[in-house]
Amino acid sequence: MEGWIVLLIVVVILVAVMLLLMVVTRYKKCPPDKIMVIYGKVGADKDGNTRSAKCIHGGAAFIWPLIQAFTYLDLTPLSISVDLKSALSRQNIRIDVPSVFTVGISTEPTVMENAAERLRNLKIAEIQELAKDIIFGQLRLVIATVNIEEINTDRDKFLEAISRNVEGELKKIGLRLINVNVTDISDESGYIVALGKEAAAKAINDAKISVAEANKIGSIGEANAKMEERVRVAEAESEAIKGENKAKAEIARTQAELREKEAEALKLAVTAEKVQAAKALEESYAAEKLAENARAEKETATQEADVIVRQQIEKRRKEIEADAEAEQMRRTAKGEADAIYAKMEAEARGLREKLSKQAEGLDAIVKAAGGEADDAVRLIVADKIEQLVAEQVEAIKNVKIDKITVWDGGEGKDGKTATAGFLSGLLKSLPPLEEMYNMAGLSLPKIVSPRKEGAEEAPEGQKE
After folding, report:
1. Which residues pair with residue 94 across a beta bridge?
2. Cα–Cα 20 to 30 A to 31, which of 16, 86, 96, 304?
3. Residues 364-386 as b or e (16 or more Cβ within 10 Å = b)
4. In 3D, which of 462, 436, 440 has the Cα closest to residue 451?
5. Under the phi-then-psi rule, with left for phi > 0, alpha for psi from -120 to 50, and beta for the rest, what region is 48?
6. What pLDDT, in 10s, does the model give residues 11-68?
7. CA-to-CA distance for 36 and 26, rounded, in angstroms?
8. Is residue 349 a part of any domain in this protein?
């Protein structure tokens, strides 16, 4: 009996030890950098559906022998280089977007089950290729929905759109997006480079404008400071001059008072000693007092004169400048008047000289005519006969004789033809020289008109 009891105890101890060993060996702890995937019979979810695996991140779990098994998924981040080229943007401009994506297995409960179902038997390189294909597609999709300006200026917004699209697709295979780093963006047409140059030029111009504005403000401030300095210095000098004048006036007044008191004291002393000469001394002291007062007034006047003289000098300077300017204007006006007067005087002298010469000529003609004015006039007219005859000829010079047609039936009187009669009448239409003299109240000399003298001597019956 005792043998069976001992055997039973041994068996119980062996069973207990085996159970303990089984518990120790099947109770598994999950490291922080891994996900423990328990598969087999793992029960159902909240909705009653059979679960394909149970994922644990951190902590520990008991793995039932025979009905359960486990494996680990590594949480180490994977760096995937995505060199996307010729992606078409919304503006139909193809751009190159080289970038680096960092992904890892997600620790969210539902996403961990996706990783257990789709990534458990894949190697790291295979997981990278799978994620790379998903990222390529989503990256092209995002680029097709944005403008190049948005990509270039608002990089955060672009990365946010990439993260939102890519992470949504990666969760379907159990991955999550950790980081996105777009290294550079370029395009075949050079549009992005042009945008960068434009932005750089704008920034440079803005900086130049800012520098110019700062220089302007500095120059204005410097000029204002110099102006303020000059104003303050002038005010200080003015106050100093006023103080000096006031001090000098006070000194003069004090000296006058001192001398006055000394004079009064001396007057009292002398009066006490010399009563008899009091009146004379009093008059003397009075004169001295007047002299001292006059001296004091002189000192005061001298101080006032320092200011007044400067003002009078300035006033005199302005008066002299005004007189000089007025004198210059008077001299200019006088010069113009003298020029006009000289011109008129020269013209008058010329006219007087001309008339004098004419008078001398007429006087010579009168003397040549024996002192007879009528004879002198005749000589003058005789001198102009050639000109008078020329004027008569001028009257008929332009008559076209060859254009004149005279109609006549026979010979005219005195045996003259019609043409000859026409010409004779044409010449008679001109005033005779003698009649011209008579119209002027003159008569031709005998040497010029002998026929007239012969006509007076001839008998009346012989006149034509």
Report:
1. 88
2. 16
3. ebbeebeeeeeebbbbebeeeee
4. 462
5. left
6. 888 888 888 877 777 788 888 888 888 888 877 777 777 777 888 887 888 888 888 8
7. 13
8. no
Tokens 């009563």 sit at which residue? 275
Q: pTM for the complete prediction? A: 0.39
**Are 183 and 119 in a shared domain?**
yes
CA dihedral 306, 307, 310, 314 (to 10 degrees): -170
- Are 62 and 84 found together in one domain? no
**What is the DSSP track for 232-272?**
HHHHHHHHHHHHHHHHHHHHHHHHHHHHHHHHHHHHHHHHH
Q: Which of 359, 394, 366 has its CA nearest to residue 380?
A: 366
CATH number of the domain residue 184 falls in:
3.30.479.30
The total domain count for the chain is: 3
Tokens, residue 208 = 């130049």
Q: List, as one string, the DSSP characters of 134-188.
A: HHHHHHHHHHTTS-HHHHHH-HHHHHHHHHHHHHHHHGGGTEEEEEEEE---EET
Which residues 6+ apart lie within 8 Å of 365 measured at CB?
376, 379, 380
Backbone dihedral region of 43: left (phi > 0), alpha (psi from -120 to 50 degrees) or beta? left
Helix 155-170, helix 124-143: angle, nearest 10: 130
